[in-house]
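sorry for the late reply, my laptop died twice this morning and i had to redo everyting from scratch. anyway the thing you sent over, i finally got around to it. pasting the sequence first so we're on the same page, its 68 residues, then the predicted structure underneath. double check i copied it right bc i was rushing
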Amino acid sequence: MSRVTITVKGMSCGGCVSGVEKALRALPGVAGVEVSLEGASATVDYDEAAVGLEQLKGAVVEAGFETE
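ok and here's the structure:
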């Protein structure tokens, strides 16, 4: 299991946090997600054999936000 923190730009409310969480949790191999509005970030615990960092970032972008 790996852990990564992704910068998420564009979140402004609790609904944004929920949207990012939902998008990340929908990916196979994601075991846990913590999204911080104040920290503008998402910390994800995931199985590298099932999902990669680019897929995680892609899910955030598809949810309507930007990553670095």
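The chain has a mean pLDDT of 97.
thats about all i looked at so far, will dig more tmrw
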